[in-house]
Amino acid sequence: MPIYEYRCRACDHEFEAVVIPKGDPPACPTCASGDHLERLISQFAVSSDGTREMNLKSARKQAAKIRKDKQVAEHEAIHHHHH
Ligand SMILES: [Zn+2]
Fold first, then answer.
1. pTM for the whole thing?
2. How far apart (Å, rounded) are the C-alpha atoms in residues 9 and 39?
3. CA distances (Å), 16 to each of 6, 8, 59, in order?
């Protein structure tokens, strides 16, 4: 879920909020106002989190694939050895 940074124009408080699609819009945790929020551009924070997660997933996927290939190779080596 995307996390956005907001600034409340009512009390000048900055905070991060997880934005739930089709959910309620965030409100300021300090003054509970949802009408004076300004969404800050925090592409760096959002994209770095996303990239890290994707890298982790693809690294795990890659590791699993390498393990599987190794098992298959070992199995084939044993198979060929016995025949
Ligand atoms: Zn506020």
1. 0.46
2. 10
3. 6, 11, 28
Instruction: Determine the distance separating the centroid of ligand 1 and the alpha carbon of 10, expressed in angstroms.
Output: 5
**Residue 8 β-bridge partners:** 37
Specify the pLDDT at position 77.
Answer: 80
CA of 22 to the centre of ligand 1 (A): 22
Question: What's the CA-to-centroid distance between 46 and ligand 1, angstroms?
Answer: 22
Q: How far apart are CA 1 and CA 46, in angstroms?
A: 10
d(CA 45, CA 27): 20
The Cα 36–Cα 28 span in angstroms is 9
